[in-house]
Amino acid sequence: MTDENSRPSISTMTDIITITRIDNLEExxxxxxxxxxxxxxxxxxxxxxxxxxxxxRSGLIEQKEKVRVQVESMITRLRSMExx
Length: 84
What we know:
Blueprint: H1 3-6, H2 10-83
């Protein structure tokens, strides 16, 4: 056997480099897909939280308006009692 037969050929080395690059790209694509999944879940959770907060805010504004009307009514009654 000669040394030439035991050495990998250039095309074999090129194939190895290509396969390595493809493997690296596959890893990067997998990482990107996982990141997309995580971001999608986080986005869904944030949208749900936003909806909950908007609903809660709406309820608080409604409650505040009721209290304002009650306070104004009490002030009006107190003024009318003052005049009597």
